[in-house]
Specification:
Elements (H helix, E strand, L loop, with lengths): L9 H7 L6 H12 L3 E8 L4 E8 L6 H4 L1 E3 L3 H9 L3 E3 L22 E8 L2 E9 L8 H18 L1
Helix pairs in contact: 1-2
C-alpha cells in the first residue's frame, strides 16, 4: 500500500523538477513510495514511435536488451502506451492473458503495474513498478502513479 494518498511526496516533486533530473533516483523514490522492488522508466522516441529504456531498477542484466526498446502495443508497457491506460497484473508469473511478454516472467516479479506517461493527452512514455509477491494495486495507488507520470511529462515535455 502506498505510504501516502494521492499526492506526490515533496521529495519526489523536487527530484523531478531539478534542472538536471536523475531519473534513476526518481525511479528509486517511486519504488520506495509503492514498496516495490523492480521498476522501469521508458520515454517515447517520436522518430521511431518506440519506447526506449531511460532507467531501470531490479531487472536482471540478461533481460535489459529485451526491454531496452519496446514497440507500442507489446508487453505491459507497450499496451499501457497503446491504450493510454494503466495495465495491472496481480501475479505476472501465473498470467496467461498474453499481455506480459514471456521474458517478463524471468524478472521473478508478481504484482505489476505499467502506467503511461501522459500530459495533455500526449504520450511521453511509460513507468512500470512491481513487487516480488502477488498484489492488486488499489485505485488510489494507480491514480498516484498516473499523477507522478503527469509530473514527469511536464518536465520532459
Amino acid at each position: 500500500m502506498v505510504k501516502q494518498s494521492l499526492s506526490i511526496p515533496d521529495k519526489l516533486k523536487i527530484l523531478i523538477t531539478k534542472e538536471t533530473v536523475d531519473w534513476n533516483l526518481v525511479l528509486k523514490e517511486v519504488l520506495a513510495l509503492f514498496e516495490c522492488s523492480t521498476g522501469t522508466l521508458h520515454f517515447l522516441n517520436h522518430s521511431n514511435n518506440m519506447l526506449e529504456l531511460e532507467t531501470q531498477i531490479g531487472i536482471p542484466e540478461f533481460l535489459i536488451p529485451k526491454l531496452s526498446t519496446i514497440p507500442i502495443g507489446k508487453g505491459m508497457a507497450g499496451i499501457a502506451a497503446e491504450r493510454l491506460k494503466p495495465v495491472e497484473m496481480c501475479n505476472l508469473q501465473t498470467d496467461d492473458s498474453g499481455v506480459a511478454r514471456p521474458a517478463a516472467k524471468e524478472t521473478k516479479v508478481e504484482g505489476s503495474l505499467a502506467a503511461p506517461l501522459i500530459y495533455e493527452g500526449k504520450l511521453y512514455g511509460t513507468i512500470g513498478i512491481a513487487k516480488p509477491v502477488p498484489y492488486d494495486f488499489t485505485e488510489k495507488e494507480i491514480e498516484t502513479l498516473m499523477n507522478i507520470g503527469n509530473k514527469i511529462c511536464q518536465e520532459i515535455g
